[in-house]
Amino acid sequence: MTVILLRHGRSTSNTAHTLAGRSEGVDLDDKGREQAQSVIDRIGELPVKAIVRSPLLRCERTVAPLSEALGLEAVVDERLSEVDYGAWTGRKIGDLVKEPLWAVVQQQPSAAVFPDGEGLAQVQARAVAAIRDHDRTLAEQHEGDVLWIACTHGDVIKSIIADALGTHLDSFQRITADPASMSVIRYTAVRPFVLHVNHTGAALTAALMAKPEPSGDAVVGGSTD
């Protein structure tokens, strides 16, 4: 199964440099709406079979044009929601960088728990579980490699990618997920394969439907010699 992790388009909170979190009513700005519309052409003829999204408005707005174009109703999954930043929600980023917890978020995110909110380790656990569950459900409904989209948030996407790469959550800040970017992971019975990270180009086609190299001793370090 192959999932396209789509981050929502640029939001009014992004441009205001605040931590939106789960604040109600945070919408896309003009640029974000353009990005949402462009997703249709970027997906092109790729055979997307399902769309799953965070319950927050900015994700709803991001997938709406594509959902209409493909005739697919987006499924809402609470586990793909933004991080619950608790007392940090809605605050200016410039103020948050002065908080002692900010350094923990940057250097040891696995230990970061937001005041009156959740921990980043919890975020990764729920998000990866959601992706795996939808993979299994879609596998039961379709034959072969199903391509689907999960529209969610930056830190959520980074945590999923870190898991797929087999790297510790403490390294997830090395991963970038820009607004409206697409990252692609193919899950197999053996292991995940990360095909794209932070793709923001005009068309998402390169290598997407190619099959991964067969596992085994014949392939070592990318060589078949």
Q: How would you name the CATH homologous superfamily?
A: Phosphoglycerate mutase-like
Per CATH, the class reads Alpha Beta
Strand content: 15-25%
The neighbouring-strand order within the major sheet is: 3-2-4-1-5-6
Total domains, how many?
Answer: 1
The low-confidence parts are 215-225
- Ends apart, CA distance between termini: 29 Å
Q: Total helix count?
A: 7
Shape: globular
What is the helix fraction of residues, given as a range? 25-40%
Task: Encode the helix/strand succession as letters.
Answer: EHHEHEHHHEHEE
- Structure classification: alpha/beta
Total beta strand runs: 6
InterPro entries: His_Pase_superF_clade-1, His_PPase_superfam, PGM_Phosphatase, Phosphomutase_MSMEG4193_put
GO cellular component, one term: cytoplasm
Organism: Mycolicibacterium hodleri
GO molecular function: phosphatase activity
Structure description:
This is MSMEG_4193 family putative phosphomutase. GO terms for molecular function: phosphatase activity. It holds the Pfam family His_Phos_1. The chain is α/β, with parallel strands linked by helices. It has a single domain, classed as 3-Layer(aba) Sandwich (Rossmann fold), CATH 3.40.50. The chain is built from 7 helices and 6 strands. The two termini are 29 Å apart.
Question: Helix and strand layout, with pairings?
Answer:
Blueprint: E1 2-7, H1 12-16, H2 30-43, E2 48-53, H3 57-70, E3 75-76, H4 93-96, H5 100-107, H6 120-141, E4 147-152, H7 154-165, E5 182-187, E6 192-199
GO molecular function: phosphatase activity
Protein name: MSMEG_4193 family putative phosphomutase
Pfam families: His_Phos_1
